[in-house]
Specification:
378 residues, alpha/beta, 7-stranded parallel beta sheet, binds pyridoxal-5'-phosphate, 6-stranded antiparallel beta barrel
Length: 378
């Protein structure tokens, strides 16, 4: 698995430009930076955008702790609701929490009081996502009580919402969520409203709606090479390659793979690759008409994908030989298989393909920004 760090930085630059000069970045690096490796991604982005990163975004306290062990001393925001039992650890690691209700605010206050520290949080507003956040309809009614609870114990850094459909062709539902968020912002007590950083946009809302001109944008998938809505294409980032281990000529009638779901109709040449679903190459890809690239040409996957082995038909590529590189995701010559193509064939989304690539695949990083590149990226 190859990961092009220069392309991640290029995609981050495009996200920043779309969001406007005033916006800062909260790159989402949860789930090990969508499977690509959070340590390398954090190092590359923090080197390339020293003044433009407000914080890194994670989902879990343990992920924030990992960034600290790696040496990132800037802000880290934990976006998934944090169970009360993990708040002490969050404070110890110096993390900022996203909070959704009075109970979680009280829990975070108790930790702050016992530590004698003022702890930071962002309040989430639920505008339709439903999984977390204070309902937007309640903000007017409940905000004063929240301010009272927060008192001097906490630092109210921001207010945000999360869009459910910003990558759909129709942006109507996203605009409606945005309107709801603006209503919630307007209902905040003066003093809070002026001090709070506002943010709403994931990748799709950043690229398609300029991040709704907020203070912060929170791109994830676009940084990592996944499309952020119809036709919103980033630079490709991840490539998945395997070497051909065996090549054989088979007569008509030969079968391949568990269940013998494929039978050669005539004489064919099959190449065996040492990669399978144990590496994250989905079984569904074969059923979905999955292809690979060999010597810059598309070849079909034959039969079912096994845990460790996949067979492709190289009848049309006579020069294919053991040791040659076969590309499952990425470019080879003039041909390219994008992660979104693989996702569509597997009837899922690029997020699930990338986060499903398992630790058995070595991550090989290219394009780490040099000092010169960093200067030109700025
Ligand atoms: C994951 C996540 C994002 C990033 O979403 P993408 O669609 O990957 O850009 C933004 N905000 C929150 C709260 C998230 O959990």
């Amino acid at each position: 698995m190859e990961v092009d760090l220069a392309s991640i930085c290029g995609n981050a630059r495009a996200a920043l430009e779309a969001a406007g000069a005033a916006a800062r970045l909260v790159p989402m690096v949860k789930a090990d930076a969508y499977g690509l490796g959070a340590p390398a991604v954090v190092e590359a982005l923090s080197a390339a955008f020293p003044g433009e990163i407000h914080a890194f975004g994670v989902a879990a306290v343990s992920e924030g702790e990992a960034l600290r062990r790696q040496g990132w001393t800037g802000r880290v925001i934990v976006f998934s609701p944090t169970p009360p039992g993990e708040m002490e650890r969050a404070a110890e690691a110096g993390l900022t929490l996203a909070l959704s209700d009075e109970a979680s605010i009280d829990d975070w206050c108790a930790v702050a009081t016992s530590r004698g520290e003022r702890l930071p949080f962002h309040l989430e507003v639920d505008t339709g996502m439903g999984r977390a956040g204070l309902p937007w309809t309640d903000v007017a009614e409940r905000a004063a009580a929240v301010v009272e609870r927060v008192g001097e114990a906490l630092r109210w850094d921001g207010l945000f919402t999360h869009f459910h459909s910003a990558d759909e062709p129709d942006l109507g539902p996203t605009d409606q969520q945005w309107t709801r968020f603006r209503e919630a912002v307007a209902a905040l007590p003066a003093g809070v409203r002026e001090g709070a950083l506002l943010h709403a946009a994931n990748s799709a809302a950043t690229l398609r709606r300029g991040g709704y001109a907020c203070d912060l944008v929170r791109p994830g998938i676009y940084l990592y090479g996944g499309e952020a809505g119809p036709g919103v294409r980033p630079l490709p980032v991840a490539a998945l390659r395997a070497r051909i281990a065996l090549v054989k000529e088979v007569p008509a009638g030969s079968s391949v793979g568990y269940g013998a779901t494929y039978t050669a109709r005539g004489p064919e040449r099959w190449a065996t690759l040492a990669i399978g679903y144990g590496d994250g190459l989905r079984r569904a890809l074969a059923e979905g008409g999955g292809e690979a690239l060999v010597h810059g040409r598309r070849v079909p996957i034959r039969g079912r994908i096994s845990m460790d082995v996949t067979v492709v038909d190289v009848t049309g590529v006579p020069e294919a030989a053991p040791g040659d590189v076969c590309t499952l995701i990425g470019r080879d010559g003039d041909e390219e298989i994008r992660v979104d193509e693989v996702a569509a064939r597997c009837r899922t989304i690029s997020y699930e393909i990338l986060t499903g690539l398992t630790p058995r695949l070595p991550r090989v990083y290219t394009g780490a920004p040099s000092a010169d590149d960093r200067a030109s990226l700025r």
